[in-house]
Design a protein that fits this description.
This protein is of the alpha+beta class. It contains 10 helices and 19 strands. Helix 1 crosses helix 4 and helix 4 crosses helix 5.
Length: 443
Amino acid sequence: MAPAAISPEESGTTTPTTASASTLTQAGIKHMSPTSNGNLPDLAPLDASLMTIELTKSPRPVPDHDSAETKAQKTCTDHMIIARWTVDQGWEAPELKPYGPFSIMPTASVLHYATECFEGLKLYRGYDGNLRLFRVSRNCERMRKSAARIALPDFDPKELEKLIKALCARDGAKWLPKDCPGFLYLRPTMIATDAALGVQRPKEALLYVILTCFPDMSKSLATPAPPALTGQANGTSKHHSSGLKLLASTEDSIRAWPGGFGYAKVGANYGPSLVAQGEARARGFDQVLWLFGPECYVTEAGASNFFVVWRTKDTGRLELVTAPLEERIILEGITRASVLQLAKERLSKAVDGTESVDVVERRFTMDDIVSAYKERRLIECFAAGTAFFIAPVSDIHFRGKDLQLPLEEGETGIYTRIIKQWLVNIMYGNEGHEWGIVVDEEV
C-alpha cells in the first residue's frame, strides 16, 4: 500500500507549507508510467519484510575509536543494505549483503544531474550496554521529502526505518562492543541510476544504507577540544580557546535561497559549499557562517544549524534564538528540533542556577549579533548537527572584525553544556526517553 501524504512533524516547529514534498510526490514521483488504458500500474512498495540476507565471508577487524583509520572516515562495517527501484516495477526486495562496491553506468543520472539525497544519523552504544538510534523516524521522513524534491521515487519511511534497524542489529554487536560506549555513523542514500543522458525524471534508482566508523567531532565536556574544533588540524589555528571558529560568508557566496532546495538533504547543497569552506580553513577557521541577502541574515554554520543565546534589549530577558524554517533555506535538523523542544520544556524555568530562557525561531542578522556583542548582551552561541553535535562557538569573523564570543565555563557556554548533556543522556541511555530507540542486536 502506498504511504500516506506527509504530515507536519511534531518538532516544536512548523513544517513549511510551500512546495511540500507531498505535493511534489502527488505530481508523479511515485508512479510515472501509466498503462495503455491510462491507469497507473500497481508498483511494488518498499517492503523490509522481503529482505534477503547474505553474510560476509571476509569479516574485517574493528579499528580503535581514536585510530587514524577511524579518523579517515573510510571504514564501513561488514554489511550494507541495498534496494533497487524501477519505474515499471517499483521496489525490488531489499538485500542485506557484504559491504562493497556496486556498478553503475557512466551515463547514470546521479553522475550528471546530482539526483542524489542522503541522511546522517548515529547508532549509539549506551552506558547501559544497549544499542540506540536517536529519533530515527524523523530522518526517514526527511529523506522522503528530500527524494521528492529531486524526483526520486517515493517510499514508506517506516520501511526504511526497519531496514536501518536490521543493519544496526546485524553489525552493532561486533562494531560497537558492549564494554565500549561510542557510536557509528549511518548513511542512508538514494541515487538515480537511470543509464540515459537527458534531463528527465529518473526511471531507475538505488537505495542503500551503510554504517561507518566516524571520529567524535564534538568537544567532550571533560577533555580538550579535538583538532577539528580548534583549527589545529591544518596548523593554522588563530586562537587557543575551545569552540568553533566561524568565518561569515560574503554576499557573493550563497548556500541556499528561497524557492531552492536548502531544506532538502541533497548532494547539490554540499559540493558548491566546499570552495568557501576550504577558504575558511585556509584562514584558520573551522566552518563558514552562512549569511543571506544584503541584510546578512544568519542561516547555518557549515552544515549545522546555528543558535544564539542573548539578552533582549527591551526587556532584558534571555532568549535562545535560531533561524526559522518558513523560507526553506535551512535544513530542518533533527538535532535542531530536539534542542528547541528540550529548551521549551526544560528552560522555561531556572536550571542549575541559571535564568529561564525564551525559545524563539525568527530571522536575525549579523548586525543583531554585533550589537548584542558590543552591548554585552550576547551570552553564547553554538552549532547543532549530527556530525559536530552541540559545538560551542568561540569566534566569528565578520567584515574584517573578530568577535571573540563568551564561553562562560572556559570551554563552553553554560546553556550549551546543559543542552548537550541532556541530549547525551538520551542518546547513551542515561535517561529513559522516547527519542532513544533501542535496537535488539543479533549476537
